[in-house]
Q: What sequence folds into this?
């Protein structure tokens, strides 16, 4: 079959990436979707089970920092669109292993951009999926896309640095990049280190929710299908060189989030909810909140469709229905497979 478009998604085996890949594969049978992922600890092979045998889906097991691999992809695959999601994403770990965050999030973005820009046929869109964390914590203001970047942790700093790299290819070459900055995304299949799946997993194992610190930390949450819809809309209607915030007005203090999840999972009376919370020390610096304005994206026609009540209901149900999803993981070994990309597979440790 001749495909009308080839879309490369990096990090397509991760939480958001797998939802994006499934949506693209299911809704665009005439597009070829290539997923480049090194299958880091936060992926599950089961996330893409439903689409992996589809004709319009190709998986490449490889590292976004491997310039030889990226050059090969762009010289042979006629990529029209890049969604760049591959990244190290856990803020806590970014303090302990900042060099790996720098390597993947900054160098990986540079290698990918460079290969895409030098491709014999350049992609017509390069969409970089960034985060509201690049703004740093709000001091009362609501951030729009022109607000200054003041990242306060190594993860956010590498996302901001990668944004600058992406932007520089627009400034110098008019390479058609777009940047999105999303609120906290949640939903089924998110790895258990992130706050909602962490609380749910603790509760399912009859442990207390560990709420970090005593500061009034709150976050805005965006359901994953709304994030995916935003990225697809930005692909079709977004303007090259622009940045789009992607978020909701739904904000919840983390301690209240824990209480809500206790009520949903444990079904206990209000008076017993706090028995399931344990307050533990936080890191010294934590951003209290990241409120963002999303008018620019709304003008393209985007609205969050999934309410918090519905999104969290679906998420809790999914974790209850899939208690072993994250424990039953196997390592992939493609090294000796007939797959032409197998030579680029990362080393197994
Ligand atoms: N989850 C959120 O709340 C959120 C919010 C805003 C922005 N983002 C951004 O969205 C993107 C996806 O986030 P997520 O939550 O799905 O993360 P995730 O950690 O679930 O997925 C990241 C994916 O990248 C892959 N990866 C890591 N290093 C790689 C490398 N060297 N080469 C190839 N693949 C590699 C991993 O295997 C994984 O599949 C990230 O860029 C993140 O910064 C996430």
A:
């Amino acid at each position: 079959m001749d495909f009308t478009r080839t879309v490369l998604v990096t990090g397509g085996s991760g939480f958001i990436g797998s939802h994006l890949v499934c949506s693209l594969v299911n809704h665009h049978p005439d597009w070829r979707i290539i997923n480049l992922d090194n299958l880091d600890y936060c992926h599950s092979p089961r996330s893409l089970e439903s689409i992996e045998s589809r004709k319009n889906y190709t998986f490449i097991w490889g590292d976004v920092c491997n310039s030889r691999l990226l050059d090969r992809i762009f010289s042979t695959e006629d990529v029209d669109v890049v969604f760049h999601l591959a990244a190290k994403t856990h803020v806590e770990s970014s303090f302990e292993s900042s060099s790996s965050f720098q390597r993947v999030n900054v160098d990986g973005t540079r290698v990918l951009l460079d290969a895409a820009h030098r491709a014999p046929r350049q992609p017509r869109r390069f969409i970089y999926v960034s985060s509201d964390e690049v703004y740093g914590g709000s001091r009362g203001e609501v951030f729009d896309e022109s607000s200054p970047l003041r990242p306060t942790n190594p993860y956010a700093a590498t996302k901001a640095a990668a944004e600058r790299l992406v932007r520089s290819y627009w400034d110098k070459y008019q390479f058609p990049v777009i940047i999105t900055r999303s609120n906290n995304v949640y939903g089924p299949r998110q790895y258990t280190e992130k706050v909602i799946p962490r609380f749910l997993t603790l509760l399912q194992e009859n442990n207390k929710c560990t709420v970090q610190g005593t500061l009034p930390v709150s976050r805005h949450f965006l359901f994953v299908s709304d994030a995916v819809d935003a990225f697809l809309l930005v692909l079709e209607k977004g303007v090259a060189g622009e940045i789009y915030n992607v978020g909701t007005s739904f904000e919840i203090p983390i301690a209240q989030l824990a209480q809500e999840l206790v009520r949903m999972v444990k079904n206990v009376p209000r008076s017993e909810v706090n028995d399931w919370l344990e307050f533990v020390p936080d890191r010294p610096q934590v951003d209290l909140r990241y409120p963002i304005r999303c008018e620019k994206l709304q003008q393209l026609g985007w609205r969050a469709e999934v309410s918090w009540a519905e999104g969290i209901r679906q998420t809790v149900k999914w974790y209850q229905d899939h208690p072993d999803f994250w424990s039953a993981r196997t390592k992939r070994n493609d090294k000796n497979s007939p797959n032409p990309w197998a030579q680029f597979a990362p080393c197994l440790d």
Observations:
- The two ends are 38 Å apart (CA to CA).
- The longest strand covers residues 31-37.
